[in-house]
Amino acid sequence: MAMDVVLSAQGLTKTYGAGKDALQVLGGISFAVNRGEFVSVVGPSGCGKTTLLFAIAGLQGVTSGTVTFNGRPVTAPPKGVAVVFQDYSRSLFPWKNNRDNVAFGMARIQGLSAAQKRDKAQEMLDAVGLAGFADKYPWQLSGGMQQRVAIARGLASQSELLLLDEPLAAVDAQTRADMQDLLLDLAIRFKQTCVLVTHDVEEAVYMADRVVVLTRRPTVVDHEIVIELGKKRDQITTREDPRFLAARHDVMTSIRGQRAHAPASAA
Amino acid sequence: MDGFSAFALLLRFRALVSFLIIVAVWQLVAALGLAPEKYFPGIPAIVSGFLGMVANGELAAAEWRTLLRAMLGLAGASLLGVGLAILSDISPAFRRGFAPIAALIQPIPPAAVVPMAVFMLGLGPKLYAFIIILVTVWPPYFNGVAALASVSDIQIRSGQMLGLSRWQILRQIKLPAAMPEIFAGIRYASTISLIAVVVAEMLAGHDGLGFLLVRKAFAIRIPEVYALMFVCAANGLVLNAIVNAARWQLAGWHLRMTGQPA
Ligand SMILES: Nc1ncnc2c1ncn2[C@@H]1O[C@H](COP(=O)(O)OP(=O)(O)O)[C@@H](O)[C@H]1O
Ligand SMILES: [Mg+2]
Prior knowledge:
The structure holds 2 protein chains of 2 kinds. Chain A is α/β, with parallel strands linked by helices. Chain A has helices at 49-57, 98-104, 114-127, 143-156, 173-189, 201-207, 237-240, 242-266, and strands at 5-16, 23-34, 38-42, 64-69, 72-73, 81-84, 161-165, 193-198, 210-214, 221-226. Chain A contains 8 helices and 10 strands. Chain A has a 6-stranded mixed beta sheet with strand order 6-7-8-3-9-10, sandwiched between helices. Chain B is built from 12 helices and no strands. Chain B has helices at 3-12, 14-31, 43-55, 58-90, 92-105, 110-121, 125-136, 138-149, 153-161, 166-204, 208-218, 222-257. The longest helix of chain B is centred in the C-terminal third of the chain and has 39 residues, at 166-204. Chain B starts with a helix and ends in a 5-residue tail after the last helix. Classes of the chains: A alpha/beta, B mainly alpha. Bound molecules: adenosine-5'-diphosphate (ADP) and magnesium ion.
């Protein structure tokens, strides 16, 4: 298979603050994402996952290192990249109804009339299972539904790379399972290359074609593992599959191993 | 009609209900002779004073001028306040430079501004504009600055991801997000603007409610003075209704979201 690299991060470091308040969060992260791939980046809370995602999205500069998207260095949010943020309640616009929130995602698409954007927004809401909620406002929906509106907005931008920052961390377990499958379906249907950042090892393995395992701060890539489970996943059978269990064991071990060493490295 | 819907009805007409209660208590105090009748006339005397001013046209002329001044002053002060808040948001240098000026001017009471303003601007519309705006601009300004600064960073980043310019982010994201808090400031400012207009008319005017009030007071027309006081209170309700209508237009989503009644 010819590797078609969409995204590449090379030696990303990030230090917040300066002097004795300086906090080095990223310690030199490198990885690449191929077209059509679903890559999970997994690491403990506070290790710098959001920092990394914002750097990839061009939303926040790094201290050193480079990000390239389709071969071009990223210095500002590039066209073709969409983000679904962790905190859906602060990401949607409460003064717009759900249709207009989704239509807002088309701000960069040229040559669409307002009516076409509305139709397209409705289509995206249908795709995430919220057909009947276009005229409602985000604050009239449950958390999981709000995050689906945010996903629809991300898809509406017709990007090729979808960056997901712990999108399901705040929804209940049943909703989370449903939305994992929804995201996998949408990724295929809309031909999205996806990077999912999460602290949830099970979710990282369940969703991904490849898992990038991070270390503690200053964070680097510990190792990567390819998940040989094919694109078709199932909440019950996939999670019982020996290959799933082996991958889960591998990731869990490396993350727990780091925790065991924590006191020594913190000293 | 059960107790609950009776209560709902009371709530619906709460302004009228409180007004009737005040009138009843007033009349009771007057009728019992708890205060000297000369300085505390009963409701009938006040009403006839009111009707007298209506009949000779004094009231309509004064009321119209005062209300117009208060409305124009409030509109001007709100636009200026929000404009300055936007400027403060765009330019931290401006915010830092303007903060001490605001802190210095803001506590000056309207009455204290009048003499200086008369020396500088003479008597006339400029004087009113200056006084009203000087004391009314602050709630929209301070609320605007605070609200613009506290817009969710995630909402702003959502705009940045779509390649929106700073100006587009301001117009499409920050201003709508800040609107509810700005309107809380404008609501508060509406009261201040009414007070400022009447005070300015009392001290330096030759027409308007404030001027009429002073003239009636000097002529010891006590019932008329009280009638005018009630008119000032009613103006508060009028201005509040206008601000509320604008608020429903520009930030109605927030009222619906927080479940506030119309
Ligand atoms: N703007 C900032 N200034 C200073 N420290 C920050 C900033 N943003 C994040 N941090 C710190 O960097 C670390 C990593 O944050 P974050 O990227 O949000 O981690 P994660 O998403 O993995 O939980 C945390 O300790 C956090 O407190
Ligand atoms: Mg995070």
